[in-house]
Specification:
Elements (H helix, E strand, L loop, with lengths): L9 E2 L7 H31 L1 H10 L6 H29 L1 H11 L1 H10 L7 H10 L2 H14 L7 H26 L13 E2 L4 E3 L2 E3 L4 E2 L3 H4 L2 H14 L2 E2 L9 H26 L11 H19 L3 H11 L4 H32 L1 E5 L5 E6 L6 H4 L2 H8 L1 H11 L1 H26 L9 H29 L2 H15 L2 H14 L3 H24 L9
Parallel strand pairs: 1-6
Antiparallel strand pairs: 2-5, 3-4, 7-8
Helix pairs in contact: 1-7, 1-8, 1-10, 2-3, 2-14, 3-4, 3-6, 3-7, 3-11, 3-12, 3-14, 3-20, 3-21, 4-7, 4-10, 4-11, 5-6, 7-8, 7-20, 8-16, 11-12, 14-18, 14-19, 14-20, 14-21, 14-22, 16-19, 17-18, 17-19, 18-19, 18-22, 19-20, 21-22
Length: about 550
């Protein structure tokens, strides 16, 4: 092949390790696929994470739901996206990269448009919003398929760079969403087609500061805005990306490939819906499961569905995936990736609502001496002005974490950031306790947001170091499935953080959540030292 050869959507000859092939044809094709993949993944993260911002504005507009009910929306989106990642790591091999990225990007239109319509109806029942939050999880699943696709295009020597760019820039979807959604809610984006505005009953905000109560707001644009980017991105993926037949030889007709993707994603919805029905309180569910039972049950059911429902070539791929569970390093690195990515996505989901609930109200004792948390704080900082900073920092430093790890070793970097996260979690817990017992909580806000930025910085660096460690410890055949598995389990942080922090705020002890996270980080710090840094470690990965 040479540079003048026309490359079709299906590529049969792909030799990225052949330097002549790479320089003449491979490099151009690989980077084209990467630069289409990045904004598609960014939009996936944005749609997945958008409920963290939407719930804040629902509170500001007086939607008839409690704070606890609104926390369930971010939690449901979190668990759905995490569960979707389990089958998503199979999609590229079964359906082809181009087919998968096109369809999973186009699929995001459904929750985006549906959310836009639902938000125009505050009178709709809670379950209708919960259903759309569940559907938004498709965006979370897209990470596993996107990463596994890009890894197939690049030679080994460029894997770190390519995956770092795809993951790091894709993670900016969280920050993009936290900046774009407050902005588009301030104007009639779609004119007459976009519906009528609602009036703020509480102060809101955007990146440039506070927006006063009484201002008209188009909350529906939080969903509709993504249509503007998803439509051209879907078209770009279809006409600009490729299926590598060396990776996915049996994709079949595109409609057959689409059916495979839809089938596997549907399999992921079933255990997620069943688990949420058992976990969520009435009237949505039965409320009979503890979260710490619900998550392992969801993972086990998703894996069981994959094992039982797989057929044809899918069966072989599933068997290969299951082989990683016999390696103890799969489990240790899963725990370490929960520390890093689990914290990043969990705190991204929960921070806007936590700011609103802790700093948006005065916390004063009533006549009987009981603390109340209902009196509006006139000096409250707007969550929509500040919440984007942490995820921005976390995403920006992710490639730096990989680069530093290449120089000094992934496990040393993970050890340092784990220690930082232990200390920062304890400190932010203490600050939350002080703020939640104060009539003027805003005085604690600079320390609160500063410490959270430290947590995001450390978790972002750790995202890069953990991915680098996986690449060192596992061979190429196992590294892909391990990356998919660890990213799926860590994504449950998007469910755990809203549930744990929401429950502790409701109990009046928000600091307990952060102290609990600190204990987990400390355990993982010891785990990392034991497996990879101590003198007699089986695998030394300094």
């Amino acid at each position: 092949m040479n540079t003048n050869t026309k490359v079709g959507p299906d590529i049969a000859d792909w030799r990225p390790e052949d330097e002549q092939f790479w320089n003449s044809t491979g490099k151009r094709v690989a980077y084209r696929n990467l630069w289409i993949s990045v904004p598609a993944l960014l939009c996936g993260f944005a749609v997945w994470g958008m409920w963290g911002i939407i719930t804040v504005q629902m509170l500001n507009l007086g939607f008839p739901f409690t704070q606890a009910e609104l926390f369930t929306l971010t939690a449901i989106a979190g668990i759905s996206g995490a569960t979707m990642r389990i089958p998503a790591s199979f999609l590229v091999r079964l359906a082809g990269g181009r087919n998968t990225i096109f369809l999973t990007t186009a699929m995001l239109l459904a929750p985006a448009i549906g959310t836009g319509f639902a938000l125009q109806h505050p009178e709709w029942p809670l379950w209708s919003f919960q259903l759309l939050a569940l559907w938004s999880g498709v965006g979370g699943g897209n990470f596993a398929s996107s990463m596994s696709n890009i890894s197939t295009f690049f030679p080994k020597r460029l894997q770190g760079t390519a995956l770092g760019l795809n993951a790091g820039l894709g993670n900016f979807g969280v920050t993009t969403m936290q900046i774009v959604i407050p902005l588009v809610m301030t104007l009639p984006l779609l004119g007459a087609f976009g519906g009528e505005p609602m009036t703020l009953v509480k102060d809101s905000g955007w990146i440039f500061g506070k927006i006063a109560a009484g201002t008209p707001t188009w909350i529906q644009n939080a969903g509709f805005a993504w249509v503007i980017s998803l439509v051209p991105l879907s078209i770009l993926a279809w006409f600009g990306m490729n299926n590598l037949k060396t990776v996915s030889p049996d994709t079949g007709h595109p409609l057959v490939a689409f059916a495979k993707v839809t089938y596997l994603y549907t399999l992921a919805f079933i255990p997620a819906v069943f688990m949420l029905w058992l976990y969520l309180p009435a009237p949505t569910g039965l409320g009979i499961l503890n979260m710490w039972i619900a998550i392992p049950l969801d993972i086990a059911l998703a894996l069981l569905m994959m094992r039982v429902a797989a057929f044809g070539a899918m069966k072989e791929n599933v068997a290969k995936q299951f082989a990683i569970f016999r390696n103890k390093h799969t489990w240790s690195l899963t725990a370490l990736y929960i520390v890093t990515f689990g914290s990043f996505i969990g705190f991204s989901m929960v921070l806007p609502l936590a700011i609103t609930v802790i700093f948006g109200f005065q916390h004063v004792a009533d006549a009987a001496g009981v603390m109340t948390h209902t009196l509006k704080n006139p000096n409250a900082p707007s969550a929509l002005t500040y919440a984007w900073i942490g995820p921005f920092v976390g995403a920006a430093v992710r490639p730096i974490g990989g680069w530093i790890s290449d120089k000094v070793g992934g496990s040393i970097v993970t050890q340092v950031i784990s220690a930082v996260m232990v200390l920062a979690s304890v400190a932010v817990g203490y600050v939350m306790m002080q703020a939640y017992g104060s009539a003027t909580p805003e005085q604690y806000f600079p320390a609160f947001i500063g410490l959270f930025i430290v947590l995001f910085f450390a978790s972002g660096i750790g995202n890069g170091s953990t991915f680098r460690t996986i690449g060192v410890i596992f061979d190429r055949q196992q590294a892909g499935p391990v990356l998919g598995w660890t990213s799926a389990v860590a994504a449950y942080g998007a469910f755990i953080a809203p549930v744990v922090i929401g429950a502790q705020i409701k109990a009046g002890t928000p600091q307990v959540a952060m102290y609990g996270f600190a204990i987990f980080y400390a355990v993982c710090l010891v785990l990392n030292w034991w497996f990879y840094l101590r003198k007699g470690a089986e695998i030394k990965n300094p």
